[in-house]
Write a structure and sequence with these properties.
By secondary structure, this protein is of the alpha+beta class. It has helices spanning 2-12, 49-63, 95-108; strands at 16-19, 36-43, 69-76, 86-92, 118-124. Strands 3-4-2-5 form a four-stranded antiparallel sheet. The longest helix has 15 residues, at 49-63. The relative contact order is 0.30.
């Protein structure tokens, strides 16, 4: 499933995005309506940060128009030598909504991945809050 997540992200997008590509936790009792948070960490090659951000923006712009999208924020490390220079945190109404949106992005967006950009994405649910 992790390779499917990476493949969807690279193929369709996303930083999302960037923005994409699920490790679905449906076997944990999660229901179709349980909100999820996508956390996607990016290792950005030297000199590719601006290109990676443009990639994320394209994916985010596609995904924000998909059913179930709530929000997304791209974070940049304040430490210049951080392993993950960019981190995307997105909210979705459900894992299933994210899965459908990721598939749509992969099939329709035409977004090209950034050479050398790597990422690891997974979906999470809140289990504790203060």
């Amino acid at each position: 499933m992790i390779s499917n997540l990476k493949r969807l992200l690279v193929a369709g997008a996303a930083l999302v995005c960037l923005c994409s590509v699920p490790v679905l936790a449906t076997d944990t009792g999660q229901t179709k309506r349980t909100p999820v948070t996508l956390i996607n960490v990016f290792t950005v090659p030297a000199g590719k940060e601006a290109e990676a951000i443009v990639f994320w923006e394209k994916a985010a712009n596609f995904l924000k128009n998909q059913p179930g999208y709530i929000s997304t924020k791209l974070h940049k490390s304040v430490q210049p030598n951080a392993k993950h220079g960019l981190i995307n945190v997105a909210k979705w109404e459900s894992a299933e909504a994210f899965k459908r949106a990721s598939a749509a992005m992969r099939a329709k967006s035409g977004i090209k991945p950034v050479k050398g950009l790597s990422f690891a994405a997974a979906l999470y649910t809140v289990i504790r809050s203060d």
